[in-house]
Amino acid sequence: AAALEAVCADAEAWASCNGLLMRSADDASAFEHAPFALLPARFPAEQLAHAAELAPTFGLLVDKIVDDLPWLMATLREAADSDPFTKRLMKLCERVQREGESQKARLAGLRSDYMLHEPDGGAEPPRLLQVELNTIAASFASLSNRVSALHAYLAARWPAVRRQLWDDAGRPSRLKLDGVLPSNPSVEKIAEAIARAHGVYGSRDAAVLFVVQPSERNALDQELLRQQLWAAHGLRVISRTLGQLAVEAKLAGNERRLTLGGAEVSVVYFRAGYTPDDYPSAKEWSTRLLLERSHAIKCPSVAQHLAGCKKVQQQLAVPGELERFLPPADCEKLRSVFAGQWSLAGPAEPADDAPAEEHAAALHMRRAIEAPDGYVMKPQREGGGHNFFGQELADALKSLSREQRAAFTLMQRIFPRAQESVLVRRGRPTAGPALSELGLYSTFVRAPSGRVLLNSPAGHLVRTKLHGVNEGGVAAGFAVLSSPLAAKR
Ligand code: ADP
Ligand code: MG
After folding, report:
1. Cα–ligand 1 centroid distance for 12 (angstroms)
2. Is the CB of 358 under 6 A from ligand 1?
3. How many angstroms separate the CA atoms of 287 and 282, rounded?
4. Which ligand lies nearest to the CA atom of residue 377 in the structure?
5. Helix (H) or strand (E) holding 116
6. Active site residue 127
7. Which residue's alpha carbon is nearest to atom 4 within ligand 1?
8. Is 189 among the catalytic positions?
9. What is the rounded distance in angstroms from the CA atom of residue 414 to the CA atom of residue 4?
10. Atom of ligand 1 nearest to the CA of 386
11. How many CA atoms lie within 13 A of 144 on its CB side?
């Protein structure tokens, strides 16, 4: 117990000295340590390697989807009828296409999130299953790099951490730190991709624009990336909200070059714009349109943004759909991490001659009403806190009309095995069994010629939440940041 307290105090001091920080929830001018797990989360080394190996294939997939906008729009159309936000993004995308895109190159910063499915305490071999693929504002790359460094520091500094010594007060843990803490160059890699895109844009003196939320608690995650862009690449970053850009952003010339008070912008990196809250009025929407119409390279463009919709993920799980975009060997690899997913747009009782997909969906809808704990129901939203679990899910399914249902997808619930863990929030440790979600960053840059210049894994993130908590999300207060321990089985 004494060891636990000493390690916690040391970890908190390290966090303050090394930028593992967030804005305080009570005082926007103050920073406090970001919530973190004191110990890394074990993942079998081969599963970590597998996730990294899949990253470039997801990079290619998103790129191919963006090349097939009719498919993307058709996939989203039905759900969008009861989801004004997605509908508006689609309209924006179509508007940009009608005019003709001025952006010539492509840049993506993705994060594919997984949980290790291990039902019944390990009766089946563990399988990595994808929770979702983020194509916009994939956050925590910088802070995850900091947590990896924290865990390496604690393991070296404290024998109690290596041997997991706190039994009485702290309770953990049966696991031993008997694996490798893999290096995590997330912030370097993402900066590198932005710099590469900037190079492709070709105006040396142009700046990078970060589009941010007005009261972002996770500001240091962005600051660390900004510092990296300057230190490693000599790139200037301008951070602005959509509201500020409504006044400042202008398009110049036939190519519609984006300028801000005279400075040209090469790359627009979105850390806002993924939730309806980011568009309180029409001016934020017209600003998004202005950015999309511009020659600057967007990370992501509105089409890439839409490719990350949960509805798209669900449609790709339908046999034959993924196969439109990738060769069979790649499809097989990606399908190995697809969880079961079903559209809720169909009838509860399909006609006998309805497609097999509709019958499968209706079957799972019925099962989800009887046994909701095997499922998650998701709307078309990002940022955590929107999903339906358990009885709430069953009640919603029963009460929603078919049109309302169409805005959601139904997903197989993934059951990771709990690991003893110590979660630290505001300097206070909470110990208990916890579940972890692995995020794999990847970066993608495509030249105007269509040639892929960069497509590679870019580090990782682990988020850990106490067993019994349904949602994830660090900013939303459900989870803490952690890092993976690559363990031999
Ligand atoms: P968001 O875009 O809000 O992050 P996610 O799909 O990542 O949406 O869901 C939020 C959280 O809900 C995840 O971090 C995870 O903890 C939980 N969750 C989502 N899908 C599943 C699933 N299929 N099985 C178990 N938990 C899930
Ligand atoms: Mg998520």
Report:
1. 28
2. no
3. 9
4. 1
5. strand 106-117
6. no
7. 384
8. no
9. 31
10. 3
11. 31
Q: What is the DSSP string of 31-78?
A: EEEPPEESSPEEEEHHHHHHHHHHHHHHHHHHHHHHH-HHHHHHHHHH
Residue 147: beta bridge partners? Answer: none
- Given a cut of 70, whether residue 172 has pLDDT beyond it is no
Q: Are 438 and 113 in contact (CB under 8 A)?
A: yes
**Which tokens is 368 given?**
């989800």
pLDDT tens, position by position, 208-250: 999 999 989 999 999 999 999 999 999 999 999 999 999 999 9
* 17 CB-side CA count, 13 A: 9
Measured CA to CA, the distance from residue 151 to residue 130 in angstroms comes to 25
Catalytic hit among 298, 417, 463, 465: 463
Taking residues 345-349, report their average pLDDT: 93
Query: pTM value?
Result: 0.96
Percent of the chain with pLDDT over 70: 95
Encoded tokens for 308: 């990350």
Alpha carbon dihedral 157, 160, 161, 165, in 10-degree steps, equals 180
Question: Is 94 tagged catalytic?
Answer: no
Query: Which residue stretches of 158-279 are H helix?
Result: 159-163, 186-201, 219-233, 242-248
Q: 177-204: per-residue pLDDT in tens?
A: 667 899 999 999 999 999 999 999 999 9
Can you give the pLDDT at residue 40?
A: 92
Ligand nearest to the CA of 339: 1
Annotation says 382 is catalytic: yes
Strands 484-487 and 41-44: parallel
Residue 67 CB partners (closer than 8 Å, separation 6+): none
**pLDDT tens track for 353-388:** 999 999 999 999 999 999 999 999 999 888 888 999
- Angle (CA) 48-156-7 rounded to 5° is 100
The side-by-side arrangement of strands in the sheet containing 375-379 is 341-343, 408-412, 375-379
Looking at residue 203, what is its pLDDT?
A: 96
Q: Determine whether 383 is an active site residue.
A: yes
Catalytic one of 146, 240, 298, 310: 310
- Please tell me whether residue 318 adopts helix, strand or coil conformation: coil
